[in-house]
Every structure is written in C-alpha cells, then in structure tokens.
Design brief:
It is a single chain. 46% of the residues lie in helices and 12% in strands. It is built from 15 helices and 11 strands. It has helices at residues 17-27, 88-100, 110-116, 132-138, 164-177, 179-189, 200-204, 211-226, 234-241, 245-256, 260-278, 283-290, 295-306, 310-317, 320-323, and strands spanning 5-10, 39-45, 51-53, 57-59, 63-64, 73-76, 103-106, 124-125, 143-144, 150-153, 156-159. The longest helix is centred in the last third of the chain and has 19 residues, at 260-278. The protein is globular and about 60 Å long.
Length: 335
C-alpha cells in the first residue's frame, strides 16, 4: 500500500481559523472510501501548547517543528493581523524545509510569514488583493503579482485571499495525485475542482453588469463544455451570445477573470486530464476529444501549463487499474 502523503500545518498564535479549516477539510478528512488518496495531516508548532485563534478557538498541536523534516508538503495559514511576527524557530524551520526541497504553500496572508523568513525575496508571490500594497511596502524585495489566484516560484506557492486558499489546496492535490483525486475532494466540499481566471474579477467587477449578460454567458460556457471537441472561436461564441466579439470578450473576462481563449484552454486541459486518467484511448483520440486537434498541440499545452507530458501524466495518474474501465465504455467527454 502506498504510504500516506504527509502534510504539515504550521501553527502559531495569530493564524486564521478559516485557513486552518480549509487545510483540515482538504487534507485532514479521510475520503479513501471514495477513491481519494490517504493523507497524514499534522498540526505542527514550536511546542505542545494550545495555539489560540480568533473567536475563542484554539488549535491543539500534535507534532513539533522537528516533524517538518518528514513532510511532503508544508502549509502556512494566513494571519488575522498580517504583520504578526512568526516565532523565530518557525522561520528557521521553514528556511531549512525549503533548502531540503520540501514544497511550501501559504494561504492568503501566509505570504507575510514566508516573506519574514526571506523565502520570497527575489521571487514572485501573491496575497489578497487588499494586502498587495502592504506586502510590497513591508517586503520590497518580493515581486508581488497582483492578478493571480495562486502562483508558484521555486517550489513555493502563495494564494490570493480567502477562498483562493481552497483553489490552491485543490491544485496541490491535483498536482501530486491527479485531477480525479482533486475532483473527488471538491465534490465532497461542494465546490468547483478549479476556477479559471484571476482575482481581478473580484476587484473590478464583483458582479456582472446585467443579469441577462450573466445568463447568456453561462449558457455559452455550457455550450462550449458540451462541444469542446469541436473548433470553437471567439467569433462563434460571441455570435451565440448575440454580442460583437469585442463586447463578448470584455463581458466574459469581467465575469470569469479569464479571456475566452484562456478559459477554453483550461477546460480542454481538464478534459484531457480526465480522459488520460479514466481511459486507455490513444493519444491522438484524447487530443481530438479534448479539442486540441492534434497530439502535438496537446503535448505543447501540457508542457507549458502542467510541466509534464500527456504520457507521463497518464503513467502517474491513470485510474484504469482501479476502475477497470475500458476505452469503449462510458466516456467522460462527449464525442
């Protein structure tokens, strides 16, 4: 049996209860009966003392910082006060973990903790849109990216505000265990396995300007998802929405945070991942059904977006041996 994936939640006074809950929900709930991987989540602190959180809550650590040397992934929650200094032993432990090559991930204002450790100096990072200027001011050596949901630089992940922590955690599951594992957890949480776009959609246009436009664009996206295997152009989608291509692209980006072409690419990559995991279809057929047109094009997009090849992805994440599905059976992607 494959050993459980070891995840450490770094705890110290001032961490946000919401982020602790997100980490616990994604990594600390046993869903192996539904086919999800086994995780070993540990709450790590400088000692065994209870860690106070806002609202009268407290977190009971079950490991000390020494356990970080065993972790496959280390997660740093955000802070109620984003200028809260982390204990020096925590900062030292995070530096050692990064030097070992352990993946580090900070949710929301947790980027400030990584910045205190100097781990974001000269690297790209993101935080909640309302904290971007504060992070830039307090840590000028950090390259703050304003319009991402989450980003990675040198095996260090940071996420935008609040719910983007869910996006990052699910992405980290997807990255280590495959899209099906992330989808299983997302379904259990009643959330989307992934969101496209950036946090700019929440800063500039919190809601669409007209309900009619929102309904129309939702219908267009639904149509696109059911016809990913067909050529889909912005002009054709705009015509279906009854808009000019320029107006359609503007409304689409405002609502989703992604351009129509970027959104389509995200959906096609997700469709290809499902086919690679669930079927033994040949690569050209996977590419056709996902709408890439050719295996070469699919391979190029996998390399640029997932840093792997379709064949390597199938080798790592195929569920065929567990499900016994066949290429000629039920197909998760419409022909």
């Amino acid at each position: 049996m494959k050993p459980a994936y070891r995840v450490a939640l770094v705890a110290f006074p001032g961490i946000r209860a919401f982020d602790v809950s997100v980490i616990t929900e994604v990594w600390g709930t046993d869903r192996t009966d539904r086919g999800a991987p086994a995780f070993d989540l540990r709450r790590v602190a400088t000692d065994s003392a209870s860690v106070p959180m806002r609202g009268g809550l407290a977190l009971a650590p079950d490991r000390t910082l020494a356990w970080l040397s065993r972790a496959d992934l280390i997660l740093v929650p955000g802070l109620d006060d984003h200028l809260t200094p982390a204990p020096a032993p925590v900062l030292d432990a995070l530096r050692r973990a990064h030097a070992r090559g352990t993946t580090l991930a900070a949710l929301c204002g947790g980027a400030f903790t990584l910045a205190q450790a100097g781990l974001l100096d000269g690297r790209r990072a993101i935080t909640h849109w309302g904290l971007i200027e504060l992070l830039r001011t307090r840590h000028p050596r950090v390259t703050v990216v304003p319009d991402a949901l989450f980003i990675e630089d040198d095996n260090i992940w940071t996420a935008a505000g609040t719910a983007a922590g869910i996006d990052l955690c699910l992405h980290l599951v997807r990255r280590s265990h495959g899209a099906e594992a992330a989808a299983t957890i997302a379904r259990s949480m009643v959330t989307a396995p992934f969101r496209t776009g950036t946090q700019a959609q929440f800063i500039e246009h919190p809601t669409p300007r007209a309900d009619r436009d929102a309904d129309t664009l939702a219908a267009v996206r639904d149509h696109a998802l059911r016809h990913l295997h067909e050529p889909l152009t912005v002009a054709a989608l705009a015509a279906r929405a009854g808009m000019s291509p320029r107006s359609f692209a503007r409304h689409f980006t405002a609502e989703t945070g992604a351009t129509p072409l970027r959104w389509l690419l995200d959906q096609r990559i997700a469709a290809a991942q499902k086919l690679l995991e669930r079927t033994d279809l040949p690569m050209p057929e996977v590419a056709r059904r996902a709408g890439f047109g050719s295996e070469v094009t699919m391979r190029q997009h996998f390399a640029s977006r997932l840093a792997t090849s379709p064949r390597a992805y199938r080798t790592a994440f195929s569920t065929r041996s567990a499900t016994g599905s066949a290429a000629g059976g039920s197909n998760p992607i419409a022909r």
